[in-house]
Amino acid sequence: MTSDTLIRLESVNKDYQMGEVTVHALRGMDLEVPEGAFTVLLGPSGCGKTTTLNLIGGLDDPTSGKVVIEGEDISSYNERQITEYRRDSVGFIFQFFNLIPTLNARENVEFALALHKNHGDVGEKALGLLEMVGLRERADHFPSQLSGGEQQRVAIARALANNSRIILCDEPTGNLDIGTGQQVLRVLHDMSRERGVTVILVTHNTAIAPMADRVVHIRNGAVEDIDINPEPSDPDELNW
Asked: How far is it, in rounded angstroms, from Cα 41 to Cα 205?
């Protein structure tokens, strides 16, 4: 593991049992992700992208192999340890936002903050996070009163509530139009560049790839190739 590597998957296999059929989702996956890098996992549906994300996030366990985060094999963690890892180190952003519909934007972020200690004034912290994603003036609006892009930006603010070093995004622009998708990518891009957050984004949309520091091509449950972009594109320059 190189000095700047934050995440390493080592010979990871993941099998799922579907009735009498065994599905091999990952087949000897080897992957390193540098700290602070914006990394895109690219590949067709069913290639193992989301499975990889779930293993890094501690949402699932490998059948064999190691998932190493900052030198620690989280696949060996007990239930308490993996819960603390997810709570303290990882922010999740999904395609379908997963906001609580009965809470407004500020309260959705406050709910995430309440899971952690030593945050001081939770209300002001929530407003600060919403301001970071350009939504402070929409703090009192409920999800049903927000556009898809605004809801996704609330989800990003919520994901940052624990000062996450790792943000995991599963098709975060999949339900958004081009313009709104670019706004969301801009926020994620700035999180990586300005805050040093390690962003891993799963997509099948090749148009997103040029903005990443590195693009990991996944096929049949393994890394097929890795492209490194010495000069990543600005999100506004993407050719959708």
From this structure: 10
Name all contacts of 170-173 with Cβ < 8 Å and 24+ positions apart. Answer: 170/50, 170/53, 170/92, 170/93, 170/94, 170/95, 170/202, 171/94, 171/95, 171/202, 171/203, 171/204, 172/93, 172/94, 172/95, 172/201, 173/203, 173/205, 173/208
Helix (H, G, I), strand (E, B) or coil at 18: strand
What is the arithmetic mean of pLDDT over 160-185?
A: 84
Q: What is the residue extent of each domain of the chain?
A: 5-237
| The architecture CATH gives domain 5-237 | 3-Layer(aba) Sandwich (3.40)
CB 221 within 8 A of CB 48: yes
Q: How far apart are CA 112 and CA 6, in angstroms?
A: 24
Amino acid letter, 216? V
DSSP H/E element including 10: strand 5-18
Tokens read off for 1:
């593991």
Tens digit of each residue's pLDDT (9 = 90 or more) over 53-76? 999 999 999 999 999 999 999 999
pTM above 0.90, yes or no: no
Token pair 């693009």 is at which residue? Answer: 215
